[in-house]
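Risk register update: the risk of archive-format incompatibility is retired. Evidence:
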Amino acid sequence: MRKFQCRYCSHIYEEAIGDADTGLPPGTLWDDIPDSWMCPDCGATKDDYDEIL
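Archived output:
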């Protein structure tokens, strides 16, 4: 599973973990997250995330 990091605050979204605070259960793929989703820490958009290894 992949990980993505916010360019502004370094928040990391991990597909394997999801994000319970914003209603994304474990296993939620990045591509399945709505475009309206925002970083829970700084409010950046989904476009402001980069895939990390």
